[in-house]
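Q: I have 256 residues here and want to know how they pack in 3D. Can you give me a structure?
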Amino acid sequence: MVYPKKRWVLLILYLVMSFQAAAENIKMKAVINDITKIYMSSMTYIFLNQALINQQAKDKTNLFSQKFIDNIKLTYRAKYNEEFPKDNHFAKKILLQAMVEVMEDNKALIYDDDIGFKGIIPATYAFQISAKLATKGIGLKIRFTRTAESIRNKLNSPDVWEKSIMQEIINAPQIYYDENALLNGKPAIRQFTPLPMTPVCLTCHGTPADNPLNANKNKPQWTDIDISGFKMENWTINDFGGGVSISIEKSFLEQH
């Protein structure tokens, strides 16, 4: 038999634990949101600087080390009209470190004047970030993905969770947050942020009319191969653009 006093104690304990769990969930959700927007800002910066990446004999220091991070921060502020997230979680530090390492890995390619198109576009940069994080074994996974039948790089193919989420939101895109997911068989927080199709996306994935390589050419001379060497998919501005999938093991989030 539970006496009235004990009932109050149990109720208070339950409320305290519920409050702590809710507070922790809010904290974790804030971290994963920050990571998503930092990651997306870096991809935006890569796209906006395609000319710098591919040009010959130019000062390209803005693509490396702390200057690269500083420019991502400026891009973030312009993109979201808010201050760059505080450096208050290990996951954010690891992501920024991975960004610098990926660009350093590509440094020789970026400075190679014998290669006109370097191939360092948002999609390939995003894949390299994902691969870099995978080598660190820290329980943080980031992937830029799309529906399985339309993915270009099969290494970016969605997993079972991502497939089910895209199927659920494809007709009404919205951020999907799952606080009871699994990653590597361990409890995890997962978030899928859909990306709207933009005119920028269509320069590679749209129709030949969207292809910059066809500028100032007669229609019979147009190509349906984009600048990266892939066949264009004829997508339109209204098509589902895929999204950014972020997964973090709860133990990693809680310990840092």
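Q: Anything worth noting?
A: Residues 61 and 226 are 28 Å apart (CA to CA). The two ends are 42 Å apart (CA to CA).
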